[in-house]
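Case study B.
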Amino acid sequence: MLNQETVKSIGRKPAAKKGKAVLTAVLRWFILLSIGYIVVYPLFYMISSSLSSRESFLDPNCVWIPKSLTTYNFKFMWGVMDYGKAFLSTIKTEMVSALIEVASCAIAAYGFARFKFRGRGFLTACLFLTILIPSPMLIVPLMNNFSHLDVLGIFGLFNKLTGIDLRLNLLGTSWTFWLPSLFASGLKSGILIYIYIQFFKGLPYELEEAAWIDGATPLRTFVSIAVPSSSVVILTVTVFSVIWHWNDYFLATMYMEKDYPLAVTMNKINDLINYAGIYLTPDKPEGLAYLMCGCLMFIIPPLVFYLIVQHWFVESIDRVGITG
Amino acid sequence: MKKRKLRGIESLKSKYGYMFVSIWVIGFVLFFATPLIQSVIYSLSDVVIGGETSFAGIKHFKMLLTEDPDYTKNLSASLSSILYSLPLILVVSLVLALMLNQEFRGRLFFRAIYFLPVIIATGVVLKYISGYGSTTDKVSESVTDNMFQVTDIMNVLNLPAGIAEYVQTIISNIFSLLWQSGIQIVLFISGLQSIPSSLYEASRVEGASKWEDFWFITFPSLSRVTLLVAIFTMIDQFTSSTSPIIETAYSKMQTGIYDVSSAMLWFYFLIVIAVMGVFLILYNRMLMRRWG
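Model:
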C-alpha cells in the first residue's frame, strides 16, 4: 500500500483523486467517531452522573452537563467502599503479584522460545491447556492446598508418621497470589507466556549466539541481550497483567478473608450501597449516581495507568507480533 | 570429533532450556495439574467439608442432567450466546482494525479510544454498565434510550419479526459487544502489520482495486490471526464469569457445595472443549480447500 507521503513525492494528485481522498477521510472520521462515541459513552455517563448534584441528576432536562457540581458522591462512596484501605491491599497483593508474573513468565517463555529440548512439544500442549481451563475449575482444590501447603505430599506423610505438622496455612495471606506468580502460574499466565514466546521467536538470534560463543551463559544472554531488546513486549505484558489483576475479584473473594482488594468491593457494591441506607430500585434513581460514582472510582487508577503508558502501548502494539 | 562437540553444545542447550522452563513446570504441577486432578475427583465423589470424601461415581452428573431443572437451561444459554456474539465480534473488530491500521490524521487518538475497552471491559465494572445485574438494568436502558430510538427505526423499516428481533438483540448488547472487542482489535492490527507490503505493491502494479486487495491479500493472510481471534473470543466468552453456568457454580462454591459445582463445570467444559475441537477441524479443512 502506498501511503500519503509516497503519493506526494511522486507528484501532484489529480483533482478528482484529491476529492476522493477528502471524502474517504471524512467518512472514516465519521464512522470512527460514531462508534468511538458508543465506546466512551459509559465513561462519560459515569463522570457526568457522579459529578452532578442530586437535583441536576434527577432533572430530565439536563443530560450531559450537570447544572451544579458536587463532590459529595465521591466523599460518600469513599467511605462506603473503604477506598483507601482496599486500594492499599490491592497494591500489596494484586499489583505485586502482577509484576512478579511479568518477570517469571518472561523467564519461562525464553526457555520455550530459544532452546530445543526433549518434551518441548508436550509442554507447549500443557501450556495451551492452562489457557483453555479457567481458574474456577481449580479454585477449590487450590484453596485446600493453600490451607495446608505441601510439596507432593511429603509434609503430609511426615505429619502422618511423626505427628508434627509443618504444613503452612497460606489462606488469607498475599502469598496465595505471590506464590503461583513466582512460578509463572498465576492469573492468565498462559496467555502472557504465549505473547512472550511469539515475541522472543521473532528476535534475531545472531546476537545471542555471538554472546554464547564468547562464553556468556544463557542466563547472562537473557538478562543482558534479550531483556533490553524486549521493552515493547514487556510493556504489553505489564499492561495486560496489571489490568487483569486489578479486575480480578473471584480469586480474591475465595483466597482472602479480610483486606479485600477493590475489585471484591466493586463486585458487591450493590449490597454495600444498600447497607449504607440507599436502595437501588427503579423508582429511586438517585442510587444510580452512587453506583456510577463507585464504578468511576474503581476504574480511575487503571485509567491513569493507561493514560501514562498509552503513548507507548498504542504505538508499540503492532510491533509485539502477538499473532506470530 | 566435530560431531561430538556439536552434540555437546546441543545437550548443554537442552539443559539450559530445562533450566528456564523448570520455573513454569513446577508451577504447572503444583498450581495446575494437581488441582485439576483433584477437581475431577471432587466431581466424582461426595464431599463433606471437614469430613471424609467418598466415591460416588457419576451420581452428580446424572442428577444435574435429569433432575436439576436449571442446569440444562443454563447450559444451552451459556453455549448458544456464542452463536450470535462470535461472528459479530469478529466482523466488528476486523473492520475497526482495518480502519485503525491505515495512515491518517488522528490515528493515535482513535487507537487510544478503541483500546480503552481492553483496560476497563475485562472487569467487574462491565456488569454494571451493561446491565447484567438485575438492579442495574436501568443503566443500560437509559443508555440505549438516550442513543437512538431503536423501536422507531424498526417500525419504519418494517422488517420481518425474526430479523427485527436479531437486530434488537444486537443493539441492546452493542456495548458489551464493542467493549468485548478490544483485545480482538489489537490482535487484528498486529496481524495486519505482519502482512508484507510488497504484496500490495505488486497488486497495485497489476491494477487491482482496494476491494480485490482485501479479498485476495488481506483476508487470506489473516486466516491464522482470525483463528486465533476466534479461539480467544470463544475462551473469553465461555469462561466469562457472566456466563450462567459459571455464575451458578460460583455461588454454589461460595456456599460450600464443592462436589456438585465441580461436576457442573466439568460437564460444561468437556462440551466446550469438544466444540472448540470441532471448530478447529472444520476451520482447517475449510482453509485446506480454499487456499490449498
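Residues 62-104+189-291 of chain B form one domain. The remaining cases will be described in the next quarterly update.
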